[in-house]
Fold:
Amino acid sequence: MKKLVVVESPTKARTISRFLGSGYEIMASMGHIMDLPKSKLGVDVDNGFRPQYEMMEDKKKILSQLKSFAKESPEVILATDPDREGEAIAAHVKEIIVGQQAKSNEHKFQRIVFHEITKEAVEEALKNPREIDENLVDAQTARRVLDRLVGYKLSPILWSKVRRGLSAGRVQSVALRLIVERERAIERFKKERYYTVHAVLSNGSQAEFELIEIDGKKIEFQESFAVYVGSYTVTKTSIDDETEAKKIVEDLNKSKFAVSNVIKKQAKRSPGPAFTTSTLQQEASRRFGLSGKRTMSLAQKLYEEGYITYHRTDSLFVSSGAVSSIRSYVQKSFGKNYIPEKPKFYKTKSKLAQEAHEAIRPTKIEVNYDKVAEALGKDFARIYDIIWKRAVASQMADAVIEQTSVIVTSANNKYTLKANGSVLVFDGFLKINQQALNDTILPDFKTGESLNPEKVEAREHESAPPPRYNDASLIAMLEEKGIGRPSTYATIISTIESRQYIERQEGRFFPTSVGIAVNDFLVSNFSTIDDVPFTAEMEDELDQIANGEKKWAPVIKDFYSPFEKTLEDVKQAARVKIEVEKTDELCPLDQGHLVVRIGRFGKFKACENFPACKFTKPFVEETNLICPKDGGKIILKKTKKGRKFYGCSNYPNCDFASWTKPTPEHVERSEIPNGNDHREKLEDIKHPKESASKDESSKTVS
DNA sequence: CAGTGAGCGAGCTTCCGCTTGACTT
Structure:
């Protein structure tokens, strides 16, 4: 007669069973168990939006096991995650079990919640059971119904106005909009040329200085302009003319200089918190070029094998037990100086975070890269390694940097130049980051000392447009704006990719002609839904439902009435045209030009005279690589399941195939630099406040 | 390994969020 405990994940079930002993049977629901029907709306719009929940097909087996066990159990303890979705799962589990039993049995249900999976936390939770929070369940119902209404009402309009099989939704359509709007911002952007001036000055010892002021006026300035979400800042200098730049170089070459000021100050650098799903995906994308999907599947395995805590989380919290084991590890390995006096606590900025789990951290701090590499291989080990380093660093001391600025002025007082140096005084958390900061050491210049020019040059730059999104920056933006959840970031991108709305090139997202057509249609007709603030407003209302301040059905009604009206109006609208790209190739049947169209299976070439001429041929994506086996051309191909791989154009005569891009030795032309420089950079996850500084590629004007 | 687009109008596509499997040229 064991008590039944229901959790969501089987790994959690296994862990908890170790804590609770033989009086309990722990079972996993494997996530949601009830949902709206797939093949119809499933919401009774005319009767208070009653949802028609049914058991999920793939959960029936689990549910029958749950039911039969519950029948024998004296008590059912609902220990699903402590958030909106978890509360709904608990309610659904109860509903299904009660369904077959006498109502008098209701009293045997208890709801417990815990925020960390430790023996103490679970035991404490068991001492404080409560009832199911119906308001919280209602908030989940509202969320589910709203998403269903938006998705299942908008998508069919796209089928009739654009093409079959397309989709729209509260989350995916905003993600698409971000990408399309970014492309438009890039199109609008006017590149501007500007110059910086650099001088190597010397009095025996030398350093490179940069011109910062002319006649007491700063030459560097910033220009901001609004983009779809937030603003974009470009840093330029006031020197925008080559003749002017040359004149300055000439002046400086002839001038003498004196040190007018030496400024020293100490700066601290603090570690970032342990990873959340979002920051892990961002870092893996930046460092290794991995997609969110790939990162999550590697993390899933690490989690199942017990190496890391749960990987779908928005929490920065680390259990006190883990904090103290990190601290003693740091003390043992690096010494007392490397642990801060008090443990560091990190708070989530976003109000939208639901904090049902811990941050992502290693479960055993002694387990290192090598151990994981040995057990699971290098792909897993490098993900584990960044998780380990972030978690350990998060509890280490700040780094201390001494920064030195030397200011010099030309003899005629017209020009002011500056050199910056920095020396790492104490490495702190940077100790475990192998890409530590490089010291820039300046000679010991003294105020009043005079210096002579050795080499003066102007460097030409071009202001850079905002970058296209990649996995990292899109996920960062979605998370910041509360669009989507940790369990869905990777699938959001997969969805808009598989609908052919966007295309990946060198890891960056480009909207396709279909994506642009769908986006513009949605924006012009449903801009209130298809916009970033919609989700934030929805979350506010869901909070009010959860607090009991509002009832869920009227909230949905307030949204649905105007939405329904718009839907009716839009049905009158004309079909949407998709732009086609004309090629130079001619149709073998009627000599018409071939155009590139996007169909359900991606791009294909078709005669421009369709429907009169029905000629089509596949679109082959070529690369500039050559096959290492037989020297043929490498082309991008797709598997049955749609996954891309690199293959030889001489297939089947040559069987070369690779999931990853063949190595640079086989590259015919040199690689496009764009988009690769972000990968191996050190440093912490930044928020998506875009800012472009001077272009890194620069050439010299003498 | 075919097939994709338009309309014809059979029957079908589609959402978000929670969780793991099964499977790969």
